[in-house]
Design goal:
This protein is of the alpha+beta class and 168 residues long. The two termini are 26 Å apart.
Length: 168
């Protein structure tokens, strides 16, 4: 069994920022009170110094409509190549003002918004995390897999994973 290490404050925000911005694409889940809930892949624009996660989204999207009905969302990140995972539950806030759009705009988003940052359909979504949990390995996937294999041969765990709650 791996280690547990809960992080708080700056350490938690640093870990959240590292994982979310490195993995970049998450499954963005809305309408959580219904089964099955709605989910779609979304690309993170930024994790700010307060631990908020920012996305660009279409004002006419189902996601924006569902957030207006229920602001609770869940973000699921996975990077199998390095055994890093992140689960975030929080509240979503939608922004339509030009200054927020200007601040969070990424030129790649023009593929979805033909008029660029001036497209009237552009909105920005901020996720304020209420609960964050992470899984990581201390030494990377290859070493972790080797330790697991050796542990199986020896009959004792050599797991170097680490997991815990991030209080941001």
């Amino acid at each position: 069994m791996g280690d547990f290490k809960n992080l708080s404050n700056e350490d938690a925000i640093s870990k959240l920022k590292k994982l979310a911005e490195d993995i970049r694409v998450c499954m963005f889940c809305t309408d959580l009170s219904h089964s099955p809930f709605s989910t779609r892949p979304m690309s993170v624009q930024e994790v700010d110094e307060a631990g908020n996660i920012w996305f660009l989204s279409g004002a006419d999207s189902n996601k924006n409509f569902e957030i207006k009905q229920d602001e609770n969302v869940q973000l699921l990140f996975a990077k199998n190549s390095s055994s890093e995972y992140l689960n975030i539950y929080g509240k979503a806030f939608i922004y339509k003002d030009k200054s927020t759009i200007e601040d969070k705009w990424n030129p790649i988003a023009k593929a979805w918004f033909s008029k660029g940052k001036d497209d009237p359909n552009v909105t920005v979504i901020r996720i304020q995390p209420d609960y964050v949990y992470y899984w990581d390995t201390k030494s990377g996937k290859m070493v972790a897999m080797l330790k697991t294999a050796v542990g199986a041969i020896l009959g004792k765990p050599l797991d170097d994973s680490i997991e815990g709650k991030l209080s941001v």
